Write a sequence for this structure.
């Protein structure tokens, strides 16, 4: 397959899976708490448990694919089918109690992992060097933005309890159809099996992983928190909020970034988190329409740089699996932290906002420190193909 067609198929599949990811990340807790009256603590725990299961499945799928790459297309196809069928039930099962919600959540998250890891690991076979990886990461950012814009628009138009089933069902069908675009790539570009020895074992610099976790928890908690601002705050509705967050994330694909080598990329990522430590709490204090847009830019640019670095730092599918594993655990922790700051309310108190603001600053500063140390001390020897 020609590179342009291969990249196009990869982007199409990325948009498809991002429809489910964005909706599950930003809409699920909001819908459960605000539309179905689920206790915020229960919604937060369901979110965390689901992402923990997803993270564990990422690790298992990555290890399995490194040993048996021939089964990748079947695994990805089956995973997307299960994820699409289960996704609407992660909200619509609310009237049947927490056990029904938990069952639907686990089915969705496990199915998603079976599709997500093979899709992500294709980056190493599509990116020959760091500039190519950066271009692909920009494409991922634009694709995520397009998906989130569709979700945000849908939430704006169909954001009431009577209409939400149509929104969730439509997203599931679109994801299932679009996700099939990546299957020819998985068939024609199989990954070579790992040798299974210590040298070839999947891995990533641990400080990069830890710094990524700290930064994701801090910024994602703030991103989820803006959906629950107090009624007295001058802010848009939840659907418009999501659209503005998405717009901020998407424009970061146009930001010029110079990363000639992984060390400079790590230093750049550290600087971005240090800046976010100052900007995030200030934005929360100001509020208004600028808050979600500028917060989206912080979320987008840090995600773009992290994914651009990944093909140069990861070995095999297992390296990608570890990154997505810790990222999803971080997102689960962010959801739990945000609902804890809500303190049983559907919107934040002044004290809750102060806790969220301080936690964001502390997490971003810790991330910046770890990433800076990683740039100074890590042995960055992995190639784009990890071979």
């Amino acid at each position: 397959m020609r590179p342009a067609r291969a990249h196009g198929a990869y982007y199409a599949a990325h948009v498809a899976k991002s429809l489910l990811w964005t909706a599950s990340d930003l809409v699920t807790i909001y819908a459960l708490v605000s539309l179905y009256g689920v206790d915020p603590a229960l919604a937060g725990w369901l979110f965390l448990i689901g992402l923990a299961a997803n993270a564990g499945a990422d690790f298992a799928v990555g290890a399995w694919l490194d040993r048996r790459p021939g089964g990748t297309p079947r695994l990805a196809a089956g995973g997307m089918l299960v994820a699409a069928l289960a996704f609407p039930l992660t909200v619509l099962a609310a009237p049947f109690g927490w056990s029904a919600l938990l069952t639907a959540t686990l089915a969705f998250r496990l199915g998603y992992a079976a599709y997500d890891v093979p899709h992500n690991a294709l980056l190493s076979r599509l990116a020959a060097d760091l500039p190519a990886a950066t271009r692909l990461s920009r494409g991922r950012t634009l694709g995520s933005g397009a998906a989130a814009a569709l979700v945000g628009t849908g939430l704006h138009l169909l954001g009431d309890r009577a209409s939400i089933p149509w929104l969730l069902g439509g997203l599931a069908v679109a994801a299932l159809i679009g996700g099939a675009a990546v299957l020819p790539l998985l068939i024609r570009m199989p990954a070579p099996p790992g040798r299974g020895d210590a040298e070839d074992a999947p891995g990533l610099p641990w400080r990069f992983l830890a710094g990524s976790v700290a930064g994701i928890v801090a910024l994602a908690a703030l991103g989820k928190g803006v959906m629950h601002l107090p009624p007295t705050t001058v802010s848009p509705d939840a659907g418009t909020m999501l659209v503005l967050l998405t717009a901020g994330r998407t424009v970061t694909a146009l930001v010029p970034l110079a990363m000639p080598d992984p060390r400079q990329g790590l230093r750049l990522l550290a600087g971005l988190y240090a800046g976010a430590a100052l900007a995030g709490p200030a934005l929360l204090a100001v509020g208004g329409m600028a808050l979600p847009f500028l917060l989206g830019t912080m979320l987008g640019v840090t995600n773009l740089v992290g994914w651009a670095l990944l093909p140069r730092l990861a070995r095999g599918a297992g390296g990608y699996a570890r990154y997505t594993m810790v990222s999803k655990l971080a997102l689960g922790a962010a959801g739990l932290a945000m609902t804890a700051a809500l303190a049983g309310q559907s919107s934040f108190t002044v004290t809750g906002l102060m806790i969220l603001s301080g936690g964001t600053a502390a997490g971003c500063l810790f991330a910046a420190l770890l990433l800076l140390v990683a740039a100074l001390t890590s042995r960055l020897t992995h190639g784009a193909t990890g071979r």
